[in-house]
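Reviewers of the previous submission asked for a worked example of the structure-prediction workflow described in the proposal, so we include one complete record here. The input consisted solely of the amino acid sequence. No template or homolog information was supplied to the procedure at any stage.
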Amino acid sequence: MIRLAAALLFAAATIAAADDLDSQMKRVIDAYALAAQNFADPVSSEQIFYQGAIPGLLRKLDPHSVFFDAGQFQQLKKMEASTQKGFGSVVSILPGRVIVLQTLPGTPSAKSGLAPGDEILAINGYIIARLDMEQLPELLGQARQQVCQIEVRRPGRAGILHFVLTPEEMQSSSVERAFFLAAGIAYIRVTSFDEKTSADLKAAIEKLGADRLVGLVLDLRNNPGGVVTAALESASLFLQPGQKIFTIRGLHVPEKSESVPATAKPYGFRLAVLMNGKSASASEILTGALQDHDRAAVIGEPSYGKGLVQNVFPLAERTGLALTVALYYTPSGRSIQKPLDAAFELGATTAHPNTESEFRTDSGRKVTGGGGIQPDFVVYPAPMNRLRAVLDGTAAFVDFAAGYVKQNKIDRDFEVTPELLDQFHTFLSGRRIQPGVSEWLAEREWVSNRLKTEIFNLAFGVEKGDEVEAQRDPAILKALELVGG
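From that input alone, the workflow returned the following structure tokens.
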């Protein structure tokens, strides 16, 4: 353990003068020895170094350099392979409630008999209604790691159902959705970048029509990034051979640029990219390259601004270290990294080197620096009002849809009729939700879409529900206007 800590301190020698390193290491070891000999309770070397000294060292660099203990490093490797344990169910998380929307064929959820519309009341003895919104995802994540006992209420059935689910390893694709928004206009959502992303993206494009498409809306909202080579390969699907994708620069890393291979055969349809404040890293690299080469219209909100090049170094005792070694720059020269807080001594001077605030795309169009990617068209999500918040927060749509799907046969041509809206209005009255006439009339179109979304979620799966939801998404509607024109 001490050897590992010493190795890490040696790796950080650039922080201090070389002749100072020996004395600083000696102070660390002396402090550890004093603590081990004199502290009131037994001293764990793992706690001191893994949770104290090493994270403390990295915190002075930047917020993204991280030490992984043996368990965390193993989990990182699994995440990189896009393989994780799970039950194969898609759920809706609401205040105090978790409702099953879909069970994937052949998965533990489907085999156990869990069904769309089921409400999970308890997980391993933890009662869902007693947990807040922050605790629910954590509980669900923990449950996927071991045999799980759940209690379920099924619409139209008296009593509580009990299920025992055993998680299985599952391969999840980062290309999560692919469908048509209109004739010749496709939509694809990419949730992260892993080793198979570009191949899966190309396969989705080919399935939707390839170069026969008029346009594509590529949704990178909430995409935190991932494997940078996947972003490079994805960029090659749209940019011309030889066009620059990014440049990296760092104190100990030679400057290097990556360009589209000469063998690339990019698609020629119109392209729009959606992004928001949770779009980061590899998703920003791809978006920045497409924007700088005037290949895509960027729509949504400013991205996160994570443009640090990180290498993962394996260390002794099956541990690892993710360390920032350089910065990413878009083809026009913009640093993707947003300015770091002054608390980070090194980052404050190196993480935001741009002296200019305006840059030019290939056509001479102005784009701004300052960290992150700024959209060409700023579009925010639809605002939440009182009625929308109440209907979503009380699970009114999901509960009504569950009962409706159970009692009615739903086909793919289903539409919400005025009569069904009246039924829903009566259903709300039974729950003491009674919107005013003007409020109800103003929201009828939104209510109709939300009802259809939840009915399709339960009847056909969440992908079909997402197709319905796309019809009221402001960013998608703007993208449709641009690529379909």
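The two ends are 63 Å apart (CA to CA). We consider this example representative of the routine output the project will generate in years two and three.
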